[in-house]
Each structure stands twice: as structure tokens, then as C-alpha cells.
Amino acid sequence: MEIRFSNRGSTLIAAFSGELDHHFAEYARNKIERELFKATTRDVIFDLTGLSFMDSSGIGVLVGRYANISKLGGKAAIICRNSRIRKILEISGVLKLMPVYDELDDAMRALHSA
Amino acid sequence: MQPVNEMKLEFLSKSSNEAFARVAAAAFVSQLDPTIEELADVRTAVSEAVTNAIIHGYENEIGIITMVCRLYDRSVEIEITDKGKGIEDIELAMQPLYTSKPEMERSGMGFTVMESFMDRVKVRSKPGEGTTVTLFKTFSSEKK
Asked: pLDDT tens digits, residue range B6-21?
């Protein structure tokens, strides 16, 4: 599992690839926390497009980061097209915290129109 | 009903074996020609059950996890057993969002995910003796 970071305007994009399970949860958490700590951006997009697998351990990682982002006044959104991962996001209530989109452009528009 | 095929795996409760267990289960189950989505459902549910055994059953100590897969005509039964600490209150443990380990950022959604990706989930547990989670799923009758 790998996470690559990039900036688009005032938004940090965290692009996941590989498989996100309990084994990689701590690695993912630490990597995003370090990046958030040094970032000058407030809003974050979690791009899950490159994930071939995620279970509920990934929910803990996303919700935990969301809590820190919103504490600092930032917003977050998710990009995900995998139907199984989307189902996990839905049943765990993550969609109530962060909207999910198919495309990066839609997520960017949503974050900056509100 | 007699299974048409059966396999049994034993592996250590290491988190690196979560991927091994779900891939092994999916490879075995693929004999029944499930759809890609159905196979992904099995992978996800197995991952949840094995993760529970590692985190909650053995609390990150090393123990043995046993996985038995039984294939029937169009269905599968997967049994995941640990000899760890067991569950005091199964009903509570299965409630959505309930977790005994919030400090570890556990979402409390493991059993809920298993239940929504499989047809049925059965949990047997005895405090101090361990837990067996059995996952059942019937696949669509059309073969690929």
C-alpha cells in the first residue's frame, strides 16, 4: 500500500494505492498525519481510486484523519469508484462526514463551493 | 448436506496474514465461478473476521487462527476460529459502531460489514476459550 501526496490550490490530495487493511492502517495513519502536520493547506481529498481493497480498518483511518482536519477548520472529501469500498463507506456512515465523488474535479468543486 | 470440496488452513495471528487469508479464501471459492463482486464480498468479510481474531481474540499476541472453507453446489461456508480471549457479550460486539478498542481507531463496523457482504454470520464464543465466526454466502446461479 502506498500514499502519494500532491497539492491543488489550497487542497491536499492523498492518493492511496494497493490494499488498505488493518496491517497497513497504522502506516497510513502516520503517513497522513506527518503530511497534515507540515501542510499549509486545510482541505483534504482522499483519493481511493487506486485502492484494490479496503475493509473497515480503512474507515478508522479516514474518520480519524477527518476528526483532525475538521478540528483545524478544514473540509474533506473522498474519491472512490469501487462499488465494494463505496458500500463500506455507506454502511459505516462516513458519507455523513465526507461526500464521495467519482472524479477529482467534482470533489474539488464541492469543497470550494460550500 | 455434504460439501463438494473443503480446505483447512492454520496460520499465525500476524497482521500480514490478513491479506494471505482473504486471498486464499477467494482463490478456493473461485472454483464455484462466483462473480467478481461476490468474490470481493468474500474477501472483505474474511478480512474482517481475521482482523477481529488478531486484534480482539489474541490482542496482538501470537496465536493460531484456523480457517475452514466448505464449498457446496452454489454456496460457501467459511469458519474462522481463534483460541483467544473470547467475547463476553456477542450481541453488543455485533452492534454497528460498537468497539472495545476506540483508542486504536477501530471503527466498530467489522461485524456489520460481514453481515452486509455475506448472507449470514454466525458467532460462537466462550470467554477465555476463543471465538468461531462462520460466514455463509450463496452465489448467483448464473455461471460466468
From this structure: 999 999 999 999 999 9
Check: CB of residue B50 under 8 Å from CB of residue B58.
Answer: no
The B-side interface with A (CB below 8 A) comprises 15-16, 18-19, 22, 37, 40-41, 43-44, 47-48, 51, 54-55, 96-97, 104-107, 109-110, 112-113, 116-117
> In the structure grid, which three cell numbers stand for residue B135, read together?
460466514
What is the distance between the alpha carbons of residues B40 and A84, in angstroms, rounded to a whole number? 7
Distance CA A38, CA A58 (A): 23
Q: Which residues of B touch A93 (CB under 8 A)?
A: 97
Structure-block grid coordinates of residue A14: 492523498
For residue range B92-108, list pLDDT tens digits in order.
999 999 999 988 888 89
The neighbour count for residue A34, using CB atoms within 10 Å, is 11
Give domain B5-138's CATH superfamily: Histidine kinase-like ATPase, C-terminal domain (3.30.565.10)
- Give me the residue spans of the domains in chain B: 5-138
> Interior CA angle at A24 toward B111 and A77, to 5°?
75
The number of beta carbons lying within 10 Å of the beta carbon of residue B60 is 13
* Complex ipTM value: 0.93
Phi and psi, residue B78, nearest 5°: -125, 125
How many Cα atoms are found within 13 Å in the side-chain-facing hemisphere of B46?
Answer: 31
Q: For residues A53 and B19, what is the distance between their CA atoms, to the nearest angstrom?
A: 10
Distance of CA B43 to the CA centre of its chain: 9
CB B137 within 8 A of CB B41: yes
Alpha-carbon distance A91 to B48, whole Å? 14
